[in-house]
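dumping this here before i forget
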Amino acid sequence: MSPALIVLFLSLLLGLQPITTDLYLPALPALTAGFGATLPQAQLTLTALLLAFGISQLVWGPLSDRFGRRPILLWGLGAYVLASVVSTLAPTMELLILARVLQGVAMGAGVMCARAIVRDLYKPVEGARMMSKGLTGLGVIACLSGPLGGVLSGWAGWRIALLALSVFGAATLALVAWRFEETVKQKNPQALQPATLLQTWRGIVRHPTFWAWSALSAASYGGLFTVLASSSFVFIDVLGLSRPAYGFIMATVSLTYILGTLACRRLLPRLGVRRSVALAAGFTLTGGTLMGIFALTGLHNGWAIMLPFYLFMLAHGVHQPCSQSGAVGPFPYAAGAASALNGFLMAVTSFIVGHWLGTAMDGTVRPLMYGVCFWSVMIALAAWTLVQKHGKSSEH
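structure:
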């Protein structure tokens, strides 16, 4: 496969995650009202999806090390399309949540394989650059998802917004079936044996480099998910924006993230992975601190949220490609398992954030602003301490 085709596959597979969440967000208040559901139930359509997404990767990872990435992608994408159709037709909130859980399980196959493919084909530093290209594509998909979700839900209702996910999944499945070539050079026939699996997990969880980079990726995604899970209610219900206007705001967030991934590719050859991450953490902490100050002083409007968050997302475009490739870097022969565990930790973080927001949302902007402030501090601590001390082995 050509490098351009690999970047396309990475973009589509990684893009499963933002399109499944971002395109759905503008429709979430209308969906909640349509079912007569509570706010915690609405949050569960996101948090249950992401918890299933995280747990499923622990299964998909070893399966892909045993059988290869291609069959796992075909099965996973097929299940994703099915789950998307079921969620579109769901007559009750309970069935919708169940369909979203299945969607999360299926999504785990695509995203996990994308991270593992990078390690299959590239050494860690080059892998970070390729991952940043794939995440630029993810940013483009996310940039389009918010406005598209706002237009579709405003024009034809929330079910059409969910139907769009099945179209994206089917197109990705068709392209994988047509052009994707297996990237695992040597499959591991013992990957699913309990003793081998236990030894593999033990080797990963005992490696300080894995934990250093996973702490960064989990904290960075925790900050992003705080906004993803609460922003539709904050901007539409609290601040009174229309669904298309909210979709446009989310598009600008994704555009800022794209700029961050482009900056990442410029920084890596000059500063290396660890120094690039440390520099980006300064932007993160500045944005989070400003948001916390604005929340405390009562400056509660769209600009007080978005201007600091743009700084956060600019740095997020550096932190994610570096941390995702860095966590998998020390494990060339267990890339699926390492990618799975890294993804699981990010998903667990998002589940915790979603559960907290379900109880903390009080009709104001404060939970969103305080949440981003908290995660900004955690990101800076991880980037300036753990990554600097233990992240070196991922650069070789």
